[in-house]
Amino acid sequence: LGNILGQFRKRSYALGDRLRYCGSDKAMGQAYCQLGLLGEMLTLDQQRLAEEKEGMKSLVTDISHQLKTPVAGLKACFEILSQEDLSPKEQEEFREQCRRQLAGLEAMAGALVDISRMETGMIQIKKEPADILETLVLAINRVYLKAEEKQISIELAEGEELSGLTIPHDVKWVCEALINLLENAIKYSGSHTVISIRMEKRIHFLRIAISDQGIGIPKEEYHKVFKRFYRGTAKEVAKAEGSGVGLYLAREIIGNHGGTVTVTSCCHGKGRGSTFVVQLPLA
């Protein structure tokens, strides 16, 4: 037992055959068994800490990469503004560029805070019975002005059985996830298009499908779009403002509710657009 504890102090928890006890003392046998279980638990903790450390390294690398572009843009604008030979019109143009870059940094900072809180477990999902239709309507109201600016219609279709449907969910965070999905649809859809939302009650879960008439997503990018900071390869994506965290956060939030978020899409022809499907457990 002393040798085993000494091994534990050296942070080596794999005991293997050294744990085997061949004596007849029942209490000693139980002590060996408990040490074996403790060793397995400490091994798992060790692996989890190593994974968290790698995850933190990856997050810091991603953040530094994402901040380089707007910071470089701001620096260039300020350097140009410091020149004395700019006309008032040119000065206003560069000030507007600075405002846009600062707005982008502010949005990214908020998203990064949410990501770090989510990944470190600081965000606690508190599921309580609530009307899911009211949560969806709340999300629609939050994005309505953005849709109106592009003259995009949002159409909601739900069956009579969904009126007053109560399911366990955190209203604040599910609303946030739905907002991210709706904002994504608005951002990559053209003017005078339609975003349709359809809710269906299945046996064990609620299905919410959000369909747009936007640029679409190539099949090989279906899983990539949910990665942290990933932005698509289409030229329309490069032109649009964004940090690539909205869909990532949406999937994390719904996943923490025991649900899923998936996407299907078409990039060509009349059926062009994307459909994001959220599934939430009914109980």
Characterization of the model:
- The protein has 283 residues and is an alpha+beta fold.
- Helices cover 52% and strands 16% of the residues.
- The protein has helices at 2-9, 26-81, 88-119, 132-149, 171-187, 235-239, 246-255, and strands at 128-131, 153-158, 166-169, 194-201, 205-211, 260-266, 273-281.
- α3 (88-119) packs parallel to α7 (246-255) and α5 runs antiparallel to α7 (246-255).
- The model has no long low-confidence stretch (mean pLDDT 83).
- The relative contact order is 0.10.
- A hairpin with a 3-residue loop joins β4 and β5 (205-211).
- A 5-stranded mixed β-sheet has the order 2-4-5-7-6.
- It starts with a helix and ends with a strand.
- The chain has 7 helices and 7 strands; from the N terminus they run αααβαββαββααββ.
